Amino acid sequence: MKLKEIPFNDQSAERIYKDYLYRIKKEVKGLNQQNQDEILMELNSHIYESLQEHPTGNEVEKLLNILEKLGRPEEILKPLVADKKLAEATKTFNPIHVFKALLLNLTNGISYIIFFILYLFLFGFVFLIGAKIWNPSQVGFFYKPGEVFILGHSKGLVNPDDELLGNWFIPAMVVSAIALYFIITLLLKLKRTINK
Amino acid sequence: MNEDFIHKWISQVKKGTLSFIVLNVLKGGKAYYGYDLINEIKKITEIEIAEGTLYPLMNRLKDEKLIKSEWVEQESGIPRKYYSITPEGKNTVTKMEEYWHNLNKSVLKITK
């Protein structure tokens, strides 16, 4: 279904209406197309039905009253967009969606902050892959019982021979990142199910 | 009297009860579109709700599978999204009513 715009006789009313639609579109543009259309069409229908209630009278005044009662898109759509984004993200396993959804939900509680920190760990693994290529001798997994335990940059303080993974370092980091990513997304899904 | 405090308290109470009110309006089985639902709530309860807050709430109720929605084409070309209650929603609102009555009794006792 496509959005059908409401026709206005008054040009000012039309401009106010178009501006409001534009603000809605701006708020929802992070969502997938179907969710964007749903939200836009539902609010459009609300405006249309409200206008029908009083068919006569000044269009501008009527429209301004309706929009004022409905509220600013920037405010009313925040919780809606955050919810929908999270639903989208846990459905697709797409890291960019998950990251965006977590950002939007940061204000919705401490657990999302924990998820966000876990997510940063994930980028840590990815970063280490790059670092290993750039500086192979000093980046790695250095371990000597009771003395050394470093995953990352040794800063030249340890014997490069203590590096255990060697050429397996990059594959190990790739596997760790993927494993952590699936764990985070599954935890997010689980959290959503528990909330329900 | 602290008007500011009362104002905040009222808006919290309203926010907390809106889902209960919506489910009660829908429990009869009739389907409503958003604007219609707002008017129905105003008519029955005389509660002024911030209209924009209804839509995020409807989305949550739908996520929880308490209500379902359906787009219905209109002659105007601007379709309406109708919401109706699910069996799970009906059971849920019955439980909510029980709790509400108990709460009401306790509040009446304490305010005596």
UniProtKB/TrEMBL annotation, chain A:
Q: Which residues cross the membrane?
A: 110-134, 168-188
Keyword vocabulary terms for this entry: Membrane, Transmembrane, Transmembrane helix
UniProt name for this protein: DUF1700 domain-containing protein
This protein's species is Pedobacter terrae
TrEMBL record, chain B:
Q: Which Pfam families match?
A: PadR
Entries under InterPro entries matching the protein = Metal_resp_DNA-bind_regulator (IPR052509), Tscrpt_reg_PadR_N (IPR005149), WH-like_DNA-bd_sf (IPR036388), WH_DNA-bd_sf (IPR036390)
Domain spans labelled Transcription regulator PadR N-terminal: 22-93
Cross-referenced PANTHER family? PADR-FAMILY TRANSCRIPTIONAL REGULATOR, TRANSCRIPTIONAL REGULATOR RV3488
Q: State what protein this is by name.
A: PadR family transcriptional regulator, regulatory protein PadR
Query: Which species is listed as the source?
Result: Pedobacter terrae
Q: What is the lineage of its organism?
A: Bacteria, Pseudomonadati, Bacteroidota, Sphingobacteriia, Sphingobacteriales
